[in-house]
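User: Fold both of these, please.

Assistant: Here is the first one.
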Amino acid sequence: MKTKSLRLVLPALFVLLLTSAFRVSAATVTEDALLFAIEKFPIEHQGPQVIDLKVRLDYAPDIGGKEYPDFEEVYTKLITWMKTYPNETDYWEPFNRALAVKLLEAYPKVTSVTLEIVVHPTFGIQYPHSSRVTTKR
């Protein structure tokens, strides 16, 4: 008789577990993004400068597990692009915009890129200043 009542309890427990699993998988992700910073980066742009760069990549809602960009690859690309930017005399805004557009073009499942550059004070300009750019698909 214990076996019979146990058989009735197990299916009910199984349904409960399935219901709980369904609730978890039905959750809506409202924000999915990669955020990181490159701090105190020395760069030759408008003369020798030191900058902080804050990076935010927003992902498409349908991004798959293997479609996320590798953080180290993103970091390395940004460093390379900053070092090889063709016009050293551009203001920070076009420089920043060019980096954001390159990131958006490089990663198809990224829907938005926000970059904030903070330029540290120098002897010539003794106060910090910044540029923030957001590009979207």
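And the second sequence with its predicted structure:
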Amino acid sequence: MDESTGGAGSTAGNRATLTATSTPASAADAAVEPAQWRHGCRVDEMAEGAAMFKAAGRRIVVITIDGRLFAFDDFCPHSGGPMHRGELEGCVLTCPLHGWRFDLERQGEELHGLRPLPMYPARIADGNLEVFL
């Protein structure tokens, strides 16, 4: 996905390539703040159940799988691979660089016991997608 223009993804069948829309960060996001619910985007701005935005100094990807929200860092903990370009099979997301696989249903656990993908609580409130960071 081109992070500046957004994109669309598909979860048809068992495998999908993950892409997400992007929302620019504000200057306020640069400062470290206490954890709180942060606005990501309007739900109607999500492209096929996926969104990407910056908040609290992090680039976050949020996807919807079977009506459940999953929010995680856009960078693979192994070598910084772009997780928004990863391949999604069920709830397992594979990094496009070196194939590390993360189970989103198990809090981003890497399937071989390596470093997990950082994940965050997400919710929809008043038509807005929010992530707790």
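Residues 1-14 have pLDDT under 50 and may be disordered.
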